[in-house]
Structures are given as structure tokens and as C-alpha cells.
Design brief:
By secondary structure, this protein is mainly alpha-helical. Helix content is about 65%, strand content about 5%.
Amino acid sequence: MSEPDSITPPPTAGAPRRKRTDEIVDAIKRMIVEHGLGPGDRLPQERDLIAQFAAGKGTVREALKALEVQGLISVRTGPGGGAFIERMSEGRAMSLLSNFLFAKNLSIANIYEMRKVLEPQVAASATPHIDEAGLNRLEAIIRIYDHEPADATERWNQRMAELDFHGVVAEYSDNPILAFTCRFLQRLLKDLTIAQDIYVQPEPVSRESGIRHQRELIAAMRRRDAKAASAILTEHMAEAEQHMLTLQAKLMDRFLTEDAAPARSRKRRIA
């Protein structure tokens, strides 16, 4: 176990002093890594943490609460209780990031600015690693949206599947940060209100070019051509961005027209 005086290095001159709680949070994180603790393992008892970090009970409890809020541990009471390591799910991590971005007024253009850069990279990094089962999964996903939808439910499922295709590609990347970021951007599109408004519109969607790109990607990945995979996704993302922005403009024009119609009606009645 780390000694209490080794929690953090001495602050540099002029640097703000960190809260004791934050120091203990970081020290416990290091402890988890250094001791190879995993999901289900228990941290030392509260009294041992108090002694180890030479801290008060309230400070240690505040640190444990912070770790619990972050999803890294769970605190159980009663016999056999204590602080236990939790597995941070990708969904929870994305939820926390989404909450951070909630009031940032994200736009479709913001998301595609990132996707245009990262999706080609994730496809290239996945190409050497994807297996035949993964390629078959991609082909099966395309079959979800390679035809006109029968109803609104199928239309929505098709739009979600189009994003899921890229999520499967990211699964095979050897760069976990890149893969996570791409899947997070895909989730943002699923959750973004304006994107949802676009996805539920009954307008016909021309998917021929997008599906052609995706089938070309599968072929490039099958022959292990990472450079071609990147080039295909570069073109595909630029086209997808333009498609979404065009649909967004049409939707906004429709809203403006619908808002203006009652006003014109009122003017006629007044006249």
C-alpha cells in the first residue's frame, strides 16, 4: 500500500493546492492499478484507508463517494459490506460524457466534423483484425436497410442500423480510445434531438451510394487493404454529412413554413 506522504508530489510554487479528497481519490485509483484489483474485489476497510492516508473519516467517505459517482466502485452496507470495484461499462461512460455535453448545443455539423476525421482511421485500424464473422455481421446489418421500410418502426430501425454498422467496424480497431470515440459519436447522433427529428421523417432516403460504400469497405477489409478502407470511409463520411445537413435544412424550412401559416391565416381574418 502507498504511504500517506506519497499520495501526490509536492505542489510546485504558485500551483493551487489540491483538495485532500481529490488526492485520496487519485491514490485509490493508483492502488487499484498497482495491486491488479478487478471487478468484485474489495478495497481495504474504511478504518484502514483512514490510517493509510492519515485522513479523517469524513474525508475518506467523501473520496469513496466520488469514486462511486464515477462508477468505479460500489459501497455496500451491512455484514460483508465495504467498497467493491465495479466494472465501468461503456454505456455508463458515454452517459457521463453525454451529460457533460448536454448544454453545449451540439450540432450535426459538430459531430460530422469529428466523424470525417476519425471514422476513416478506425476503419483502417480495424482492417487487419476483423475476421470473417465480423464481415458477415456487417453484411447482415446492410440487409436491414437495403430496402424501403414498411412502416415508421422499420424506418427508425433502419436508421439506427446504419449507425450500428460503423459501431461493429469500431469493435475491431486495435486502438480502444479511437474505437470508443467513434462509437460515442454514433451514440450522440442517435440521441441528438435534431437528428432524431430527421430520422423519423417519412421522406424517401437514397441509400444506394451509402450501401455501395459499405460493401466496398467490406471488400477492402476482406483483402486487408487498410488504405482503401480509409479512402472509402473518407468519401462515405463526407457524403453522409452532406445528406444529413440537406435533410436538416429541409426540416427547418418545413418548420418555418408551418409556423408562418397560422400567422397568415390570422391576418386574413383581421382584414
